[in-house]
Design a protein that fits this description.
This protein has 161 residues and is an alpha+beta fold. The chain has one domain: Muramoyl-pentapeptide Carboxypeptidase, domain 2, CATH 3.30.1380.10. It is globular and about 45 Å long.
Length: 161
């Protein structure tokens, strides 16, 4: 069974109980790493400045302690960069334009892996405690992925009433 690295475990420990419950169950079946749990003010301001977040401090779900958001991604042994393949739509289009169909197929497979992981996290959350989890690939949970300006594949957050 997979286990968290010390770095992922440290970030896991900053998550709210619902996300800890969900992500520990996800780990039993789907190897992944945690990139971010709680995010402090400086890191949040940097994320907003570089466009990886639309929320300013202290309005992001990562800014709560414990954190109501987690950034996590699937680990894949065939990945070119340490288990995480970050290639998505932009690289897919470049491969298509260049006619590099082997790279195109590999990137398409990777995109499928990210969406599969996201669906798994959402499903486990619902099954564990009826937690509603919103993912960064479908901010309004309508199962349409082309109606958003920010696609944040690693992001998952608890939706609270």
């Amino acid at each position: 069974m997979p286990s968290y690295s010390p770095s992922s475990k440290e970030k896991f420990d900053t998550l709210c109980p619902e996300l800890q419950d969900t992500m520990s169950t996800v780990l039993e079946r789907y190897d992944h790493t945690i990139f971010c749990g709680h995010r402090g003010e400086a890191a949040q301001n940097e994320a907003t400045a570089n466009g990886t977040s639309t929320k300013k401090w202290p309005d992001g779900k990562h800014n709560r302690l414990p954190s109501d958001a987690v950034d996590a991604g699937p680990v894949y042994s065939g990945s070119p960069k340490g288990g995480i393949d970050w290639r998505t739509d932009k690289e897919l289009m470049i491969a298509a334009q260049n006619g590099d169909w082997e790279v195109f197929k590999a990137i398409l497979e990777n995109i499928k892996r990210w969406y599969s992981f996201s669906a798994f996290v959402r499903g486990v959350g619902w099954g564990k405690g009826r937690y509603i989890i919103r993912s960064g690939n479908d901010w309004n949970n309508d199962n349409r992925f082309n109606d958003h300006t920010l696609i944040d594949l690693p992001h998952h957050e608890i939706v609270r009433p």
